[in-house]
Amino acid sequence: MADLVTSPQQVADNILRYSEDPGKLADLMAMTRAWYAIRHGNGWLFGPSKFVGYADMTVPRYLAADYSYEQHGRIDSAGTVMDGRITEGVIRKWARPIEPGHPQFDEVSRALAAFCAKFGKKPNNLARLALINDDIENEEDFDDDLVSLMVAIYGRLTPAQQGNFKRSIPK
Predict the structure, then answer these.
(1) Taking the alpha carbons of 128, 131, 137, 141 in that order, is the dihedral positive or negative?
(2) Percent of residues, the chain, with pLDDT higher than 70
């Protein structure tokens, strides 16, 4: 059975292994919905959850697993489905999602697009990004307390005020 990662270091190690030969997995890039990133030098390295969420994953090991359309995932040599939904549940505790408005969102999403473009691919329109905790910088610039306050205030608005508020949010 494919063992799940047990530390953020294992996730980072898998991202490094993925980056050694991502071209062999390029056909899967456009289908990937969950990308995890670590800072590496002046740039970023990425890995999909289905790859980085299993202990000691390598490109050859990943490619050796057959894909099952019925089970929506690769099946390892022990017959276990390698499922991104399972890996995301494990990785989530060491990762911080970044969305529009996060101080690093533009930088990291551009880096992911450039990474995929090297292989003639684009990130999935539904792709999500997350940073592994050890590599988050400037997190103090993103104040979750402010978001909580805004939600509390929004909840006290009348339905008409909520509608006006939603229309005034820049897109």
Answers:
(1) positive
(2) 91
